[in-house]
Protein 1
Amino acid sequence: EMHQKERNQLKGRNLNPLVLRKVMLDTNAMMEEFKEVLLLRKLMVELHKK
């Protein structure tokens, strides 16, 4: 139910290329932050091993 609604909202947003571009940039930024967090976690684990 919720997913269908969200999908429809996304479809509506996709009609505007500028909005789509912003969503893409936001998603990329989130992915980059996520990668950094994962790297930090890895480092912490490595440090604890020593």
Protein 2
Amino acid sequence: MSNALGLEKNTKTSSASDRSFGVMFGCIFIIIAVLLRIRDKRETLQLCLLLMSCLTFLVSFARPRLLSTPNKLWMKFSLLLARFVSPIILGVLFFVLISPLALALRMFGRDELRLKTKNVVTNWQSRKICGYSLDSFKNQY
């Protein structure tokens, strides 16, 4: 069952998924701690992140089911985020890539769909090949 945003109420996770979730977040905490070490000298925050990383690794290998609830929340957050980000990215791709390409083709007189020929009875395209051979039926695609 899903609600208006398409988020599942009964999202099930497995222990392998919970374990990979814990390992992923443990790695993220380590990366953030290393970046803070390189750029800044906030040693308290670095130590907290390293401690969180160690705890996350420990829990993910010892008791991965403890990470089931955070994993479900993270999956619901990702579904919610996907509902808003995907249309934005597709809109940007359309207006940045496809629309300028279509305008450029129109300026150069291209009519790929052959919409300018209005006085035709049919849109059938006649084939130029006169005869058929057995080779024309093999590997059609």
